[in-house]
Write a structure and sequence with these properties.
4% strand, mainly alpha, two-stranded antiparallel sheet, DNA-binding, homodimer
Chain lengths: 157, 157
DNA sequence: AGAAGACCTTACGCGAACGTCAAGTGCCCG
DNA sequence: CGGGCACTTGACGTTCGCGTAAGGTCTTCT
């Protein structure tokens, strides 16, 4: 089975990856600046491989769960090690175990937050059913560009 | 049943809450500045009630799941509404539904991240078992204050 | 030829969430 | 009554994760 059939050796432009994952070119270049991805070059232009794409996916996932880019970098490095320094690996291992515990605790937080929000939604629904049932099930922007409230948020940007 | 037995009407100083929840006085004042908590005063000093404490807990939970302080503020406000403007409530409802979806997706991300990390841990363990089995099961700091690596992270703070 | 895109680099800017002084107040303790 | 501690209010500094010009290169279309 020829290699180009097993995996078409496809490459991606920066724009393509951005569209696929919903991020900006600036962000990708920023990640590269931080050493998280290192695409090939065609002249000046960046050329991303499947591997780069996979890394990007991990980066974005990590971000969404609140990892800092530096932490994501450590995790990504792991896949390049192979025969690295044992002490270093031991440190990584301990760190990752900590990370796992943190993530699991975070998952509990999420569950609780969802509960809170869902209870809040029920209360709101009840109220709306009694007053303005036609406003239910609307997407956010279909409702109205909110007028300025008096005591909204004191100095928030 | 007298009230002071049902709930001792206890209050907290800023330091006490900080110790309990592992944050700094600066952070608490910052949240207050943003309108997320409004403790009473004894002269100049802040006096936190059980209610304030509960709000703080929600704030920190929200933070850990990646909510911005402004979003946390909206959620907290909900518990003060009662008979608020219906349109406003409808907007809140839609927003919260969105938030719930986001959180559930985030939960999936966490599950995947945990998988990644756990797989990574297995690989590291295998390697260490073959090379330096005595380093296993150590907490991070018991191992060694890491020596400076050459190509660590190019410009990360 | 000229204009339009898609890419590049450099560099300054920004908002969020605090950290970190500096300077003052109130209260207890020896 | 001086010292120390916990608290206060500014006000400026910092880090992270990019956004946003400004200007240059290369290809491609008309």
């Amino acid at each position: 089975m020829p290699t180009e059939l097993r995996r078409p050796a496809r490459t991606f432009t920066i724009r393509q990856l951005c569209q696929e994952f919903g991020c900006t070119p600036r962000a990708l270049r920023f990640y590269e600046d931080k050493g998280l991805i290192s695409p090939e070059r065609d002249g000046m232009n960046r050329v991303y491989s499947y591997k780069d794409r996979a890394r990007l996916q991990l980066i974005l996932r990590g971000k969404r769960v609140g990892l800092a880019l530096s932490e994501i970098g450590e995790i990504l490095d792991l896949y390049e090690i192979g025969d690295g320094c044992a002490t270093q690996n031991a440190i990584s291992l301990a760190k990752f175990r900590e990370r796992i515990r943190a993530l699991e605790s975070q998952r509990r937080d999420i569950d609780m937050a969802v509960d809170v929000l869902q209870e809040a939604c029920s209360r709101l629904e009840d109220q709306l059913k009694q007053t303005r049932p036609e406003l239910l099930e609307q997407p956010v922007e279909a409702i109205r560009p909110r007028r300025p409230r008096p005591g909204e948020m004191r100095r928030a940007g």
